[in-house]
Write a structure and sequence with these properties.
By secondary structure, this protein is α+β, with helices and mostly antiparallel strands. It is built from 2 helices and 2 strands; from the N terminus they run ααββ. The chain has a two-stranded antiparallel ribbon with strand order 1-2.
Length: 100
């Protein structure tokens, strides 16, 4: 599993397209056909859904493996600047987990 933060619908759509183009030579014939069908025919519907702020998914099946890209519009909230001279009081009560 992995994630990618896209800052716009076109960027999210483009990320899936680039990834599909990259892996398509390694896919079996059926999976490659699925990938290129999405790239040429179904991609516009994905872009439209994203512009309407609707979640969508692209799935490719290769042998016994299913690869799914799930794209969800998300509202990002800015975090407090970590270099500030004064941190919130709650930072003193946080105990990090030990790595041992």
């Amino acid at each position: 599993m992995a994630s990618f933060d896209a800052y716009s619908a076109p960027q999210a759509d483009r990320w899936v397209a680039v990834t599909l183009r990259t892996i398509s030579p390694a896919l079996d014939a059926d999976a490659s056909d699925e990938a290129w069908t999405w790239l040429h025919d179904d991609r516009i519907e994905t872009r439209r859904a994203l512009l309407r702020r609707e979640p969508c998914a692209v799935t490719i099946r290769h042998a016994n493996t299913r690869i799914t890209w799930t794209i969800r519009p998300t509202l990002y909230l800015p975090l407090a600047h970590r270099e500030a001279t004064e941190h919130p009081t709650c930072t003193d009560t946080f105990t990090p987990l030990s790595s041992g």
